[in-house]
Specification:
332 residues, 8-stranded mixed β-sheet, 10 helices
């Protein structure tokens, strides 16, 4: 089945340098994660995302326990593809030292994660994989051809009865949040991303685990022997996680205020209020358009945005794919 969808290609044109810019670099994937977590029947009932303003989104959105984790996945993915050094250097070390993947800048493919009762292909997995793409699991034996099995992995994600059909070495790959690797070598590892390190689980096919470093604690990358996972903590102090949580709180307070400026006691930092004002001033505009604008807020020409129509092929007649958002890093 072929389906015509909108493809939004966002290409990084220059680097982010200041804390102000860094906050927008985490806020736009946070908003993306929350906007795409809306239930599809609600989105359709109001006429689609084009009819949902940023303010209306704050009223339609229903907070969930896993929302911060979903946004963390988007933010980590975005940080990798946009070459955020706080994250990229950690990922590069984990891949080269523990996963036998080295070479040019690491890349990330956001797997079609279930966020709202449907598969959201934020990155088109098949578009980024080739027939030679190999999945390295850390187990002995020949690497798996990832593209060959990706349909089976998607089916296993949606239907538990299909999980037994996967090769035993990857029968837990449906739990992956990202595929992280190197486009030059075309080698990848199944990656699980958890905002709460205690929820990190092993599964056949998963090799890399990305978690926040605890404040003031060691961020040493290490292999967890019993889980067969390489644990890669993302730095906290004056680094990515501190910015992420600050951005998360700005978005959260903006939503709780239904698109109005939060009370100063709820958002006391002058910089945070300055950033939040940019959201408030755009509350009447469609949420997805605001997200695209936020990507350019750091500095002039930070992102080049290209919109076009494309086709996605799927054997699932019930699969609903509306939009592919493809971030491309400065170095890709």
């Amino acid at each position: 089945m072929l389906k015509m969808i909108e493809k939004i290609k966002c290409t990084q044109a220059t680097e982010v340098n200041s804390e102000y810019e860094a906050l927008f670099s985490v806020i736009h994937p946070i908003l993306t994660g929350l906007a795409l977590s809306l239930k599809q029947d609600i989105v359709e009932s109001v006429g689609g995302y084009e009819k949902i303003s940023l303010e209306v989104f704050t009223r339609l959105y229903e907070p969930g326990d896993g929302d911060c984790g979903i946004c963390f996945e988007y933010a980590v993915h975005d940080a990798i593809v946009n070459s955020n050094p706080d994250v990229l250097n950690r990922i590069d070390t984990a891949l080269s030292k523990y996963c036998r993947i080295s070479g040019t800048t690491p890349s990330s493919i956001l797997f079609g994660a279930e966020k709202s009762g449907m598969l959201q292909f934020i990155d088109s997995v098949k578009e980024h994989l080739t027939d030679n793409s190999q999945l390295l699991t850390g187990d002995r034996g020949k690497p798996i051809k990832l593209k060959k099995h990706i349909d089976g992995v998607v089916s296993a994600f949606k239907r538990p009865q299909d999980r037994a059909k996967l090769p035993s070495s990857i029968n837990g790959l449906w739990k992956a949040d990202l595929f992280v690797g190197n486009t030059t070598m075309d080698n990848w590892v199944g990656t699980t991303v958890k905002i709460n390190p205690a929820q990190l689980e092993s599964a056949k096919g998963l090799r890399l685990g990305i978690v926040p470093c605890k404040q003031g604690k060691s961020d040493k990358i290490q292999k967890h022997e019993t889980k067969n996972l390489i644990i890669c903590p993302i730095p906290y102090d004056k680094s990515f996680m501190e910015i992420f949580y600050e951005g998360w709180n700005i978005v959260k307070q903006f939503i709780l205020s239904h698109g109005q400026m939060p009370k100063e006691i709820n958002l006391a930092s002058g910089l945070d209020r300055l950033v939040c004002k940019e959201l408030v001033s755009r509350r009447s505009y469609p949420v997805l358009e605001v997200i695209e604008v936020l990507k350019t807020m750091g500095q002039p020409h930070l992102m080049n945005v290209e919109n076009k129509q494309t086709h996605v092929e799927s054997e699932d007649n019930h699969l609903k794919i509306n939009r592919i958002i493809t971030p491309v890093s400065l170095l890709s």
